[in-house]
Design brief:
Layout: E1 2-7, E2 13-19, H1 25-40, E3 51-52, E4 65-66, H2 69-80, E5 86-90, E6 95-101, E7 104-111, H3 119-129, H4 133-140, H5 154-166, H6 171-190, E8 199-202, H7 209-219, H8 232-250
Parallel strand pairs: 3-4, 5-8
Antiparallel strand pairs: 1-2, 5-6, 6-7
Helix pairs in contact: 2-8, 3-5, 3-6, 4-6, 6-7
């Protein structure tokens, strides 16, 4: 997914827009930014600073600065949920656990070598089982039992799930097993950080109620979910951009006003 967030001087979100990522990332970034500006009733000249983040941050030619998504998620979640000390970001391509203090990253671990433990793993399983992605979480909560998923590799896990489906195993039970497998993998990765409470979950995975329930079982306590978990990276980027502008103004430096070419 590609997301755009525009905030004002009080860090209120005045516009946000997100859509599936497609080829020609630079053109997509410009179109997405224009959509957000239209929603906000603004022109490009009204924007004081632009920060890009995520894997595609290098493909935003009009950005003033590039900042890693780890820093952006830490800043946004800490600002919105000040009690949080650990952030688990479950994205489409990777999963991260981030220890934070005063809005800054203390340490982090991540899984970016395999789809297991990420949103893509869930997407593949949903497609294999013929279930809409938005129905995966609620359906898994109706399971009578959790089916053990032995394989952590996405390809082999998909074959395993399909084989059990043909044997008559209920879809809900399979999804509950998928969520347990993912939660176990995430918990194992995050435990290397020696997690501290409170724990918050960000990213698209936070919108999956079945996955959150499975993760809470592994942790042994409830997690916090920000109001807009899918947008945490973009919100954090906007907050950091605002801080850069404020620091420059405090130091008597005035950043040049740009008419961004989208």
């Amino acid at each position: 997914m590609t997301k755009v967030v525009i905030i004002d001087e009080n860090e209120r979100i005045i516009a946000s827009f997100h859509s599936a990522s497609v080829p020609e990332h630079q053109r997509l970034a410009g179109r997405m930014m224009q959509e957000a500006l239209t929603l906000a009733g603004l022109k490009s000249k009204d924007i004081g600073y632009i920060v890009s983040t995520g894997y595609g941050r290098v493909n935003v030619p009009f950005a003033d600065k590039q900042i890693t998504e780890i820093t952006c998620h830490a800043r946004a979640v800490s600002r919105l949920l000040p009690a949080v000390r650990t952030v688990i970001d479950i994205g489409g391509q990777d999963c991260k656990a981030i220890k934070v203090s005063n809005g800054k990253v203390v340490d982090f671990v991540m899984n970016d070598k395999c789809a297991a433990g990420t949103g893509r793993f869930i997407e593949v399983m949903a497609e294999s089982l013929g279930v809409k992605l938005e129905d995966v979480g609620p359906l898994s909560l109706s399971a009578q039992s959790e089916v053990a998923i032995a394989n952590t590799c996405t390809v082999f896990a998909e074959r395993e799930v399909v084989a059990q489906l043909t044997e008559g195993v209920p879809v809900a039970d399979l999804l509950a097993g998928v969520h347990k497998a993912i939660a176990t993998r995430i918990f194992g990765m995050a435990s290397r950080l020696k997690m501290e409470r409170e724990v918050a979950v960000s990213g698209g995975g936070a919108k999956n109620t079945g996955l959150i329930r499975a993760l809470e079982v592994k942790l042994g306590y409830p997690v916090l979910i920000p109001a807009e978990p899918l947008l945490m990276g973009a919100i954090g980027a906007a907050m950091l951009g605002k801080e850069i502008v404020n620091k420059a103004a405090t130091a008597g430096q005035f950043l040049p006003v740009k008419n961004y070419v989208l």
